[in-house]
Write a structure and sequence with these properties.
seven-stranded mixed sheet, six-stranded parallel sheet, alpha/beta, 344 residues
Length: 344
C-alpha cells in the first residue's frame, strides 16, 4: 500500500509499505480523508515539536476518517463497510491520569503522527476498534476527519468555563480558531472578536459569528479590544496562532480575573512569552490545551444536528500522490487556505 513518509524537514515522499492486518480488538480501516494539522506542519517545517523529533521515517496525519475493511477477533459493534472517524489517541488506560478521566494527559499515549507512532496519511491503518466512531448518515468522510480538530476546540472551550454573556477574543483564525468562534457563539458569548493576518480567514470568522475582526498587521488588536470594551478587556482569550506576540496580546486584552486558554504550538524556541506583571496583577487563570478529551460522541452529535459548519474551513483538497504540494500550500498560507484535506 502507499503511505506518505516524512524523512526530515520538508522531506516527504510516497513509499510502498506492507498492508497491516488487524489483531484481536482491532479493525483495518481504509483511509479516505485526512486533514493536515498545525502540528503536522511543525514536523514538516522543523522536524520536531519541542523535544519530540522525527528520527526515523514517519507517516504524519491524525485527522482521519474511512471505512472498515476487516475486523479482528473479539470486535463487537463494527463490521466491514462501516464508515468511521478515527480517534488518533491510544492512551494506556492504566495510569493515574487515565484512571482519573484525563486520557489526553496519559504519559504513555500513542498518538498518530507523533514519533515514533505512524499517522493516517496512508491507504490503510489498523486501530483499536473502541477508538473508531461510526459516522451517521449525512456526515461525509471529510466531516469525520474534521471531528478531531473540533474535539480540540471543544476541549479548549470546556477549559475556559465560558458563561453566557461573557466576552471573548480569539487570536488566530485558522481551523481551531474558527471552530472556537462557532462554539463560543453557541455558548452565548455576548461579543466575540477574532484576529489574524489573513483577510480571507477573518471573513470566515465573521461568517461564523465574530462580531468584529482585526487584521493584526494593520491594526493593534489590544487597542481595538480595549477601545470597544471601554478599557475593560475581554473575559476569555483563546490563543490559537502562537506566532510572535499573540500570547502577550492575549494577556494584555484580558480583563482582571479573566481566563487565557493557550491552544497553539510555538514555532522555533519552545517557550511562552508574556509580561508577568500584567498576568499577575490581573490575577489571570491560564489553561493549556492538550489535544482533545472524550470528544467524539459530542462532536458527532453536534455536527449531525447542524450546529456547526465543518465544511467551509476545508478550502483545499489534494490526492495522496500530491501530499508534498498539500503540505507546501498549508505551510505557505497561500490561496486563502484554511484546512487542507488529503483524499485517498
Amino acid at each position: 500500500m502507499k503511505a506518505a513518509r516524512l524523512y526530515g524537514p520538508r522531506k516527504i515522499r510516497i513509499d510502498e509499505v506492507p498492508k497491516p492486518t488487524p489483531g484481536p480488538g482491532e479493525a483495518l480501516v481504509r483511509v479516505l480523508a485526512c486533514g493536515i494539522c498545525g502540528s503536522d506542519l511543525h514536523y514538516f517545517e522543523e522536524g520536531r515539536i519541542g523535544e519530540t523529533a522525527v528520527s526515523e521515517p514517519l507517516v504524519p496525519g491524525h485527522e482521519a476518517a474511512g471505512v472498515v475493511e476487516e475486523v479482528g477477533e473479539g470486535v463487537e459493534g463494527l463490521r466491514p463497510g462501516d464508515r468511521v472517524a478515527v480517534d488518533p489517541a491510544v492512551p494506556c488506560g492504566r495510569c493515574e491520569w487515565c484512571r482519573r478521566g484525563d486520557p489526553n494527559l496519559c504519559p504513555e499515549v500513542r498518538f498518530f503522527g507523533t514519533p515514533p507512532t505512524d499517522g493516517a496519511l496512508r491507504e490503510y491503518l489498523v486501530h483499536p476498534a473502541d477508538a473508531l466512531f461510526k459516522l451517521p448518515e449525512g456526515l461525509t468522510y471529510e466531516d469525520g476527519a474534521m471531528l478531531e480538530p473540533l474535539g480540540v476546540a471543544l476541549h479548549a472551550v470546556d477549559l475556559a468555563h465560558l458563561r453566557p454573556g461573557q466576552t471573548v477574543a480569539v487570536f488566530g483564525a485558522g481551523t481551531i480558531g474558527l471552530l472556537v468562534v462557532q462554539l463560543v457563539r453557541l455558548c452565548g458569548a455576548s461579543w466575540t472578536v477574532a484576529t489574524d493576518l489573513l483577510a480571507s480567514r477573518l471573513e470566515m470568522a465573521r461568517m461564523f459569528g465574530a462580531d468584529e475582526v482585526v487584521k493584526a498587521d494593520e491594526e493593534d488588536p489590544v487597542g481595538r479590544i480595549k477601545g470597544t470594551t471601554g478599557g475593560r478587556g475581554v473575559d476569555v482569550a483563546f490563543e490559537a496562532a502562537w506566532v510572535h506576540g499573540t500570547t502577550e496580546q492575549a494577556v494584555e486584552a484580558l480583563t482582571p480575573g479573566g481566563t487565557l486558554v493557550l491552544i497553539g504550538i510555538p514555532s522555533g524556541e519552545d517557550v511562552v512569552s508574556f509580561r508577568a506583571s500584567s498576568s499577575r496583577r490581573k490575577g489571570l487563570t491560564i489553561k493549556m490545551v492538550r489535544r482533545a478529551k472524550h470528544a467524539y460522541p459530542r462532536a458527532i452529535s453536534m455536527t449531525k444536528k447542524g450546529l456547526l459548519d465543518l465544511k467551509s474551513p476545508v478550502t483545499h483538497r489534494f490526492p495522496l500522490e500530491e501530499v508534498k504540494r498539500a503540505f507546501e500550500v498549508a505551510s505557505g498560507y497561500r490561496d486563502g487556505v484554511v484546512k487542507v484535506m488529503v483524499e485517498l
